[in-house]
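Sample entry (597 residues):
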Amino acid sequence: MPSALPPSWPHCGHDTAPATDPVGCRGIRIPGQDACLAHADPADRTAYLGTLSAGADIDHRSTPFSHRLLAELLNALRDQTTDLPVIGRARFDGSKFDGEADFAEVTFNGPAEFTGAVFDDYGRFKAARFESVASFAGAQFSEASFKRATFADAARFMHAEFRYPSTFSDAHFSGPVIFNLAQFKGDASFHRAEFSEARFSGARFGAIADFSNATFSKTSLLGPFVCAGLVFLQEAVFEAPVTLEIAAAAVYCAGTRWEYRAELRCRYAHLDLRYAVLSAPTAVTFHAAPFRYLGTPLPEAALGSHDSSVHVTSVQGVDASFLVLTDTNLTHCLFTGAFHLDQIRIEGRTTFAPTPEGLQLRGRIWPVKWSKRRTLAEEHHWRAHAAGRTTPSTQPSSPAPRWQISPHHSDPARTPAPEDVSAVYRQLRKAFEDAKNEPGAADFYYGEMEMRRHSRDATPRVERGLLHAYWLLSGYGLRASRAAGWLIAAMITTVVLLMGLGLPQNSPKQEASGTVPADGGRVTFTIDKDDPQNPTHDRFTGKRFEKALNVTLNSVIFRSSGQDLTTTGTYIEMGSRLLEPVLLALAGLAVRGRIKR
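Predicted structure, serialized as tokens:
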């Protein structure tokens, strides 16, 4: 219902209805008349328009405008030289534009005030020039275009509402532009816009927010705002230290350039940083709680109730020496092609892609169970290709039943080379080691060795054979259970062999023989010992087990037991003393790698 309170200016009062609208038309009267421009007599309107000229101040607050009436008004304000409308101070607060509101190429030399204006059709401000303050606070747009518009002073769009696609492409804002609490229900394009200081605190975008190729020269805080769709920051330029606070389904920062320190605080977003240019430390952080503006949490219902964590999908082509990732999800992140990965900082509760769960069939014959470790999306991609899969997976980030191809890979059909993946693992291992995170570094060392073992081009055959043995015996010195299992198996084998072949049938006895001189002189004895005899029966007895176990345990710690052995048993002990201490050392090395800090 219309307000029962009259406006503060002398108003038209047309169509007054005592029961429903006692105020009537709220449009300000034109000078010397009792009606607004819309309801004035044609002769009075013509006379008023005849008094106007280029650069004149106009005041048509709360006046209803049709497309034709607005065209007549702007035609009266045309500059004779350029044939373009020029307005001094323009006051359209609360005005309603029923048809297309065409302000294309209009120059506003004074303040342009559209506070609370309603644009029921298309608001066209293409190539308009605002030389002073422009205020669209609380305005409602059906569709709007500010393409190539120029704002020389502050521009205010607080609480503005854009119901359908709107564009500010190529707009130039020399002063602060304020979109605080603005609502864009359709796509919003700021492509190639130039901002001095842009404020979008509390803004809401219902579809796409396109800031591609935009320039932010003095903006220190962009957001917080919520976008139900994709936020494009592709090739945007930030020329001052900045903090971005964004809750969105996806944020695309390919080729974005940050000239100074930057921090990206995100929620829900799949963040693509490929080929971003970082000139100073840049941090990507998951913001655990909903963003707040003026003490009130921003509504996030449009983003659904799924995981609100930040999924970084690519850092390809990025100089990672300036990059800090905190509490991010890197399950599908592509690292191949990044520079200085060994200097990246990965902190907080960061998630990498897990290995598949459950038993897998290798070669459709051998069941395999993958040990749990952190892996890269590139290894998933390579193993998926090796298994004959080339379609990107739509599985969630939780452990999947098989190796997957990242849904964010630019070319899913292209198989990454194992040596390239190995190089990425090596650099990330160095980064974790420098951060004193030895357990994390151990997982990447395992991945590096796996890729080296499978690389037929970069790893010679002999070296691959050694790596296979290293993997089989102890998981590259990182799987204590595997090394311990082999050690136990080796000890059991040694005990069995010693009982069956190594221990003599009976312990050899020593015999001393000599001659006693008749005159009682010095006696000389010769001590002989029988050679150990191979066992022929009763090989597996408790007494022989105890002796075999004693020999085996001494072999593990590289000691000789002093037990009499057959020739075969001597060689068995030599092999045991060579192999079992190595397996014990590998098990100890694996345990140390997991508990070292």
